[in-house]
Amino acid sequence: MEIHVSEKLKIVILLLLTQFLFSCSSPRLPSATLHPSTTTDVASYKYLIGAGDVLNIFVWRNPEVSGTFVVRPDGMITTSLVEDIQVSGKTPTQLARSIEEILATYLRDPVVTVTVNEFTGPITEQIRVIGEAAQPQAVNYKQNMTLLDVMILVGGLTEFADGNDATLVRIENGKQMEYQVLIEDLLKNGEISANVDVLPGDIIVIPETWF
């Protein structure tokens, strides 16, 4: 057992030394900025359109300018009358009012309805799970989603996970906050009190256990 621990310590020291030498010899890119979600609590959640969403835009009495559109990676769509309309980050209702303002130049009193057929949403609204999850991935947020819901979607923990030392990272009032979440107690011991609400933009980091 002592030999096993010693080997792990050697590996850790070697990794730290390698990272130190690499950081000394290579320039570092600036850290990525975490963009906060517009959702600050569960009750205020509204779905926002994002790249990859499929939108059905219906203009009353004007079928020639109605249609189905896929939101491009730059967050825009192109319609038959107007090119490059910014849609990402808006609710369907907000987008409908924006399109009405644009179409008012060409049509008299346009009435627009926007529905979403396929949902992806902006990156800022997704929950990202990294580390020792069975299937680390970005998860599309759904209203009233909890930690348990997210962990079911990512397949739970790996056998090497330190689930009770996991961290939930959230941007609050412009500051990055970190909260401990007891995922192992929730999943393996059934402690429902360990279940918590999650919000769009949350990042869940699950470390590996050393023992």
Automatic annotation (TrEMBL):
<dbReference type="InterPro" id="IPR049712">
    <property type="entry name" value="Poly_export"/>
</dbReference>
<keyword id="KW-0732">Signal</keyword>
<feature type="domain" description="TRAM">
    <location>
        <begin position="170"/>
        <end position="211"/>
    </location>
</feature>
<dbReference type="InterPro" id="IPR002792">
    <property type="entry name" value="TRAM_dom"/>
</dbReference>
<dbReference type="InterPro" id="IPR017477">
    <property type="entry name" value="PEP-CTERM_polysacc_export"/>
</dbReference>
<protein>
    <submittedName>
        <fullName>Polysaccharide biosynthesis/export family protein</fullName>
    </submittedName>
</protein>
<dbReference type="Pfam" id="PF02563">
    <property type="entry name" value="Poly_export"/>
</dbReference>
<keyword id="KW-0808">Transferase</keyword>
<dbReference type="InterPro" id="IPR019554">
    <property type="entry name" value="Soluble_ligand-bd"/>
</dbReference>
<dbReference type="GO" id="GO:0015159">
    <property type="term" value="F:polysaccharide transmembrane transporter activity"/>
</dbReference>
<dbReference type="GO" id="GO:0016740">
    <property type="term" value="F:transferase activity"/>
</dbReference>
<dbReference type="InterPro" id="IPR003715">
    <property type="entry name" value="Poly_export_N"/>
</dbReference>
<dbReference type="Pfam" id="PF10531">
    <property type="entry name" value="SLBB"/>
</dbReference>
